């Protein structure tokens, strides 16, 4: 299995990880300054352009900014790359649909097409972490990266016992790089706001600061993965790889190798396959949240594999939050009010859950709040057959932004909103699942399926019946009818 990586100078350069504080700050500062000047030039020129040409020029500037973000942040990895990955799930301002789709593909490259770090740098780290040369722990080890991401990359290997495994290795120096990135993150605020004015940039950077330290600790991730693997062990359509704890450490995580089709291949599959896959994705994340009180913070589709036996394998458990029962009851109350189209109950539920301040509540436009929340949540809060489309993807990214003259009213109401700490990962999970279903063009009665987890409803599909039987067997009770 062992191989030597190609001697490609361009790849070596792309794989370099600048870790010095001055070097990383200079990259961010140069990106902000250069793009800021170009935006200023575009705004000045737009004053004498027609509205149509001005809109076109602004779109071209946004596209150029995305290209630069992909190039610069893709080389930096760490928290800087995380910003680009999150932007790949956000609706960007002022672009026609075809440009939106092209821009999302470019930003998604930060998630899916990360250049690997040369193996020689990683080998020293692995040997230090495991207390000896690779041959002491592995019979075979592939030097060529199997996958690469913002904080580490993955290699295939075989243990001395003959088990096929994947070895996730943290990039050398990435912890120091992340610390610098978090200090520099506010420098990117003007650029991010230009690209996505409706995005709460403060909440985005707050989530990064709070969670990325946990993601750097692979021992914590191994603990999270073991916890979830136990919860879904022998599940009829969900799989989580087993962790090899004896070969894992703070910066090396070894787990079972799983063969399967990646998300882009599933997107090209027939409708029945896409529908079933989408339902499994929803059931996995909603089940963990509303049944097991676990919110996963990184549910993007690069972390799923469709196994040959039909089960879907889920990967990457670095970002996780346990959610209190009271907070989940608040989410259920919001969904119930949206499904019932009850503006008064929704307003009360939003206040109780901490999304709206009690002070000044008489200023809230309750019908507008209902319209905004229905635009984002009705796909899971209300029953009814629905096949997702590209517009659903855009709606999930917009988080309720509206067209034309409605935007000022919506923005005024949005200024009254806050995001309670428990809800950052919950809202992100809901939005990303909707985006995944949209990219799959999947169809089902999503509200009826979600109601099993939100409200304890009876199984709505054959998969629901399989899961109910599995859970009853696991609990030692009789299957639910």
UniProtKB/TrEMBL annotation:
Extract the GO molecular function terms from the UniProt entry. Answer: ATP binding; monooxygenase activity; transferase activity
InterPro entries reported in the protein's UniProt record: ABC1_dom, ADCK3_dom, Atypical_kinase_ADCK, Kinase-like_dom_sf
Q: Where is this region: Disordered?
A: 1-20
- CDD domains, A to Z: ABC1_ADCK3
Identify the keywords attached in UniProt to this record, alphabetized. ATP-binding, Monooxygenase, Nucleotide-binding, Oxidoreductase, Transferase, Ubiquinone
Q: Which Pfam families match?
A: ABC1
Q: Give all residue intervals belonging to the ABC1 atypical kinase-like domain.
A: 110-324
Q: Does the keyword Oxidoreductase apply?
A: yes
Family named by the database record: Belongs to the protein kinase superfamily. ADCK protein kinase family.
| Name of the molecule in the record | Ubiquinone biosynthesis monooxygenase UbiB
Query: What is the species of this protein?
Result: Patulibacter medicamentivorans
């Amino acid at each position: 299995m062992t191989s030597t990586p190609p001697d490609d100078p361009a790849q070596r350069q792309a794989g370099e990880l600048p870790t010095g504080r001055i070097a990383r700050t200079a990259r961010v500062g140069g990106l902000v300054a250069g793009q800021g000047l170009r935006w200023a030039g575009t705004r000045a020129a737009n004053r004498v352009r027609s509205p149509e040409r001005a809109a076109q020029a602004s779109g071209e500037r946004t596209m150029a900014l995305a290209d630069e973000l992909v190039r610069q942040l893709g080389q930096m990895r760490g928290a800087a790359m995380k910003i680009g990955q999150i932007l790949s799930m956000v609706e960007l301002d002022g672009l026609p649909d075809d440009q939106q789709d092209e821009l999302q593909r470019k930003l998604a490259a930060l998630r899916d097409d990360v250049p690997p770090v040369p193996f020689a740098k990683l080998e020293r780290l692995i040997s230090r972490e495991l207390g000896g040369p690779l041959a002491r722990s592995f019979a075979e080890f592939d030097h060529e990266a199997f996958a690469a991401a913002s904080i580490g990359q993955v290699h295939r290997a075989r243990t001395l016992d003959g088990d096929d495994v994947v070895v996730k290795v943290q990039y050398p120096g990435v912890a120091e790089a992340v610390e610098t990135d978090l200090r520099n993150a506010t420098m990117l605020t003007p650029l991010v706001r230009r690209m996505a004015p409706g995005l709460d940039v403060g909440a985005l950077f707050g989530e990064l600061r709070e969670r990325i330290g946990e993601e750097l600790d692979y021992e914590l991730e191994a603990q999270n993965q073991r916890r979830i693997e136990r919860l879904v062990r022998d599940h009829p359509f969900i799989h989580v790889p087993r962790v090899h704890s004896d070969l894992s450490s703070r910066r090396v995580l070894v787990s079972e190798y799983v063969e399967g089709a990646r998300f882009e291949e599933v997107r090209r599959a027939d409708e029945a396959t896409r529908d079933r896959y989408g339902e499994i994705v929803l059931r996995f994340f909603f089940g963990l949240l509303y049944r097991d009180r676990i919110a996963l913070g990184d549910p993007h589709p690069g972390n799923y594999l469709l196994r040959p036996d039909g089960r879907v394998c889920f990967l990457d458990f670095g970002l996780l939050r346990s959610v209190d029962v009271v907070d989940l009851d608040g989410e259920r109350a919001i969904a119930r009010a949206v499904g019932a189209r009850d503006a008064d109950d929704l307003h009360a539920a939003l206040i109780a859950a901490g999304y709206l301040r009690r002070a000044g509540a008489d200023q809230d436009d309750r019908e507008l709040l209902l319209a905004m929340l229905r635009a984002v949540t009705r796909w899971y809060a209300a029953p009814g057959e629905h096949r997702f489309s590209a517009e659903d993807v855009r709606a999930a990214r917009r988080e309720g932004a509206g067209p034309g003259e409605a935007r000022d009213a919506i923005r005024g109401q949005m200024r009254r909103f806050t995001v309670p700490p428990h809800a950052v990962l919950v809202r992100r999970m809901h939005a990303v699942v909707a985006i995944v279903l949209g990219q799959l063009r999947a169809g089902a009665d999503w509200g009826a399926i979600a109601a099993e987890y939100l409200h304890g409803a009876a199984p709505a599909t054959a998969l629901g019946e399989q899961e109910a039987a599995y859970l009853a067997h696991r609990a030692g009770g009789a299957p639910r009818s």
